[in-house]
Amino acid sequence: MSYGWLRSYKPIIESDTSAGNSVVAFIRNNGRLVSVARIQEDQDGRRITGKLKSVTCKETIRALSCGDSHAVLLSEEGRVLCLDKANILRPLDNLCNRQVTQVACGDQHSISLTQDGQVFTWGQNTSGQLGLGWGEPSAMSPKPLKSLSGIPLVQITAGGDHSFALSLSGAVFGWGKNTAGQLGLGDTTNRHAPAPVDCLNLKKTVLISCGGEHSAVLTKGGVVFTFGSGRYGQLGHNSLRDELQPRVVGQLWGSKVTQIACGRHHTLAFVGPSNKIYSFGHGEQGQLGNGVKIDQSVPLPVQLPDQIDDQKIEHIFAGGNHSFALCTLGQESEERSNNLRSSVGKVTQAIDEKIIDKWISECDSKSWKKGQKEITKMFSSASCLNGSFLDKSCDKHYQTSPKQSGLDFSLVRGAFRKLANKGKVLTEVEAVVQHTLLPSLYEEPIGVESLRVYLVLPELLRVLHKQHRRTDLTEAVAAAVLRLHPDKLQVLGDCWSSLKPSVMTKHIGVWKKALSGILRSGHILRTRDPGINHLLQVLGHLHRANQKSVETQTVPDSTFCMEEVHFNPIFLEEDVKLWRLWSKQDVDQTPAIFCRYPFLMNLQSKINVFNINAALTQRTGMGPFDMFLMAAPAPFFELRLNRASLIEDTFHQLRVACPSTFKRSLVVYFDEDAKLTDVYKRDFFLHLFKKLLVPESGMFMYNDTETLAWFPAMPRVEEKRYFLFGVLCGMALYNNNMVHLPFPMAFFKKLVNIKPSLEDLREFSPIEAKSLQYILDYPDDDVENMDMTFSVMWGDVAVELDPKETGKLVTSANKKEFVDTYVNYIFNQSVEVMFEEFRKGFFKVCDMDVVEFFQPEELRGVMVGKEIFDWETLKQNTVYEGEYHAGHPNIVTFWEVFEELTEDQKKAFLLFLTGCDRVPILGMNQIRMRVQTLLNSSQQHFPEALTCHSLLQLPIYPSKEILQSRLIEAVGHNRGFWNE
């Protein structure tokens, strides 16, 4: 039974009622009759309620909403009908092919929500209340509100000239008139398109109601927020002030409100547990139900008739200047929700394992067509996918933000794993997603919830890949991701960066596997497929999301590497050329260029790119090159040196040289040797770096064990030397020479623009790092007792880490700041001038963008090599020339002698053979030793080596003892071009 106040009616209301400014409507007779009363003013200005008039409906009506003078009805079948001023009922033909789940009316506009999550608006648009965008006219027929596309909505509502939509995870979006702050956005500017009400984020909003110029929201915990016009006290804050942002109604705090309803200038709140209604706001027409016709600015109980004491209030309604309560007898309402949101329900049924089981069981039966329709309905709706698989533990999905997707990925994986059990069902899903869902996705959705679809679909792609399906759908999903507006793609990137490592790894694997399959098929060698470009770009966005901060990096960078893909050097040369030619062009306007995505390449490919880039650059001797087709011989950079004054000669000639020539191929002459040969290069780098990197050189400081070097805080040599040292390091890398660089990983991190950390300090100075870790781990309550300040000693230099506050104490609140500042001082601030000089020199030779292809550990390995010695591989890869062969007696004897050498002697042999006592980063199989006889030699001669060619010239010896003696002597004294 329904009770109203102002002018009381007592009709039998069976499902719904609604009141506008001048119209009230009730659903009766099992939904086949709608009773309407219209309110008019007499000559004295008094409002007179007319008689109820009934409109017979051909369809069963289950919901209705009243505007200023019109009403919109919703049938059980999801059809929309409009009731005009003359009480004539007409179907809304524009929505006849859509199943509508909700309708709402403002004064002169209307809204509908369809089962597939689409919002349609029509009516006046003078203040943007249709949400269609700036400058859009009023619309007499429904127009889709595309910006809300994909958001799983549970409620739409409208006020005078403003509107709201509420998502499944409590996100609130408002649009329309905002002159009194009724949108809760903190200002009074009208919005012509839906805008998120950020103040309500994480509040767990479950219901919204709109008045003429004010709004109210209800949270899951029963808290009421109001905002907008407070002219009549309708905000309940004991004031008549407008509120531009949502504010808690303090006097209802703790009451566990279960429903709210806004009239034109008044508000109702229903407390379910106590069966009480509270009202506040304008009361001139008696709409507050308090027995008097005055306004009130605080919530007070409504004086309900005594005869409803045994009845349960089920719903409350507020119209223009009147209010209603819908009651039921006894326990009749216990099974119904007191919250209007539960009566609305979800937009569509959520996808879960239960419904998938149903599809699987029916797919081979006659009822399969019904299952197909359900699959089409659910998987063609982004809002359905976005509203499924929610993390409901502790209401986590209500915390949805760019850092929290609100998804339970175990549910996602379980659902798609089950789908994969039945190929027929999976094929149906694949087709619907590719041909219906993806084309419908909107490029500029609002809210994080609308982006969940891009986090869910990779799980579908993953199960398809496991069944070795084609990559067409993967490429199509990649294209859909890239169609997103850049701002929305940035938000999606934030979602990616917040994923757990296990989930992020699976996402990367989906795109990587699709791309890898194409590459291994050889398709890429001659074709620049748009699908490949799309896959590359998505992986690029994932990589950037993963690297937003080193501290929060989700997975190791190696996760992206396609180790199994080996790029043809010819293809890589073409790719490098394209990369240089298109370097400043937008990615979308260029072909697929793999050099833009070095994190996908294995180390061999990166080294190949570096060498190809160097070779192409050497043709002109310049940096960015544009003359790839030059046929002229490459010029050289020559150094003419004396062994006795190696360092002085080198630095002098580098000082006077033109820096643009540093990129040329290096040739070294020693002691006026006129032969044009580059075989001295390895000997040059070997001996120069050994002389430079000793404590006596004065260029570097060393750790306690004198095994690692670092730049000093107070240098003892001129700054220019660090620039020249950088040039030399660049030349070594550029000319494929490993050198002695005893620096910690921080050195190589800084070269590729990665910030060193406490872990890097642990490598260089374990004791210092242990002390800092001790401070971090020390109980907060006791840190102050350590009596430490931001003053440190480093390299015999006393330093104030915070010069603005001398003697600043280390506390529990700033101990991490202290450690971070300390590490930053050691690796950055104290060496800023010297390292910058070094960088300038290094990148005068090497191109920075190519060096940054390498991870720090890779760069260290390429420049310095590694100490993993596989002597058996060296033997297996050896080739023999001239009269030598594997079975030659002298060769057999040589390997017998070699195997009897100590480990240090074998390393010395490697140094003797190659000019370096370390193994290339790619392993010993990169060294292919050649052995030939030493011409015109006798048993008195020692073995010799050409280091640049890994060539061993081995005399024929009459006995094992003589071979052993001569080899050990030669290796021990490094006899080669640099005899000692």
Estimate percent helicity: 25-40%
Structural class: alpha+beta
* Number of beta strands: 38
Architecture per CATH nomenclature, i.e. the level-2 architecture of the largest domain: 7 Propeller
Fold-level CATH name of the largest domain: Methylamine Dehydrogenase, Chain H
Shape: elongated
Percent in strands: 15-25%
DSSP helix count? 28
**What kind of assembly state do the chains in view correspond to?**
single chain
CATH hierarchy class name of the largest domain: Mainly Beta
Largest sheet: 5 strands, antiparallel
Kindly provide the radius of gyration, computed on alpha-carbon positions and rounded to a whole number of angstroms: 39 Å
In round numbers, the mean pLDDT is 87
CATH superfamily descriptor of the largest domain: Regulator of chromosome condensation 1/beta-lactamase-inhibitor protein II
Number of domains: 5
Low-confidence stretches: 6-11, 332-346, 621-631, 975-980
Keywords: Repeat, Transferase, Ubl conjugation pathway
GO molecular function: ubiquitin protein ligase activity
InterPro entries: HECT_dom, Hect_E3_ubiquitin_ligase, RCC1-like_dom, RCC1/BLIP-II, Reg_chr_condens, Ub-ligase/GTPase-reg
Protein name: Probable E3 ubiquitin-protein ligase HERC3 isoform X2
